[in-house]
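Running this now, will post back.
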Amino acid sequence: MMDRNLVLVGGGHAHVQVIRAFAERPEPGLRVTLVTDRLLTPYSGMLPGHVAGLYSHADMHIDLERLVRVSGMALLRSAACRIDRQSRAVMTEDGTVVPFDILSLNVGITPDLSGIAGADTHGIAVKPISTFLERLERLLDDASRPDGPRRIILVGGGAAGIELALALKARLRSVDPAGRPFWIGLATGNGLVPTLNGGVQRRARAALVRHGVTVLDGFRVAEINPDGIRAQDGRFVGADAVLASTAARAPAWLQETGLPTDAGGFVKIAQTLTVLDDPTIFAVGDCATVVDNPMPKAGVFAVRQGAALTENLRRTYRGKPLLPHKPDRQFLSILMTGDGSAIAGRGPWLSVEGRWVWRWKDWIDRRFMRRFADFRR
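Update: finished.
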């Protein structure tokens, strides 16, 4: 078989699994190149634990440079900015042209705060995580000063918003040696974790109340300004800092590639994880949407796509039929509460809570990360 080039653009949850799998069992004649401008990829499942002070920066990041090196693959440290589909090449911001025979995109999402006036200027977006972590450290440093911020609001009542509100509450207890209290608010326009079952919703609300997080129900944020947030109905709540865990969109450059995209700029893919008009180009994770079976933008789905993507990349190289990937919609969700406990839910009825749930989640997440930190070919 002729030598061919597999190019992986982005070092997300699915691609790190592809790199390890192809290192363990290479395809003869297939050259693999990772194109990314970030050498550390954050694992989103450990973000709340990091915010709470339970995980270090290193604990929640995969060292892509090391992983690629020990895997014997090529690394191009630059951001992709264009795809020439006619010449079958990826262009990067430093001017490099990377030819491909098979291409896979795992480039994540960017915040979409366009629906909230002033959000780009006065809000702190939770995605992308790398940028959020930089701003979070500055916020925590500021909070440690006697005149630092004391009122912080999270916008978004989904799992991420709830976990981050509880994590911040836990972290800030030890930030100010003077012991001045912090007020944490959670603004939600559509209830708490509306996609999860009623038991999880009740447990999440109870945890927020127990830890002193103020839930602002029915608060659809219309504006973020230097003094706080204003709802569409005119209500105003003062804040020194506002974190937004709401809508997101695909990176803008994807819409200029000629790939099929939806209204949000997400690449439209089939259940085989290939783009609709080219079976040799794949897109996975948050940057893509399966047209026939759209799923929430959550890290758990990108993790589960890893094995399916690996198999179909191999099949493409070997000229074999591709297999559909059909994730279970009743996936397990675990929300940490910042106090050594966690809430788990699945489907329409399962809802449990306890310290054992947190220990279970911690074991799952650490095991996943060890697959890459300890990997030797």
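The first helix runs from residue 13 to 24. More later if anyone needs it.
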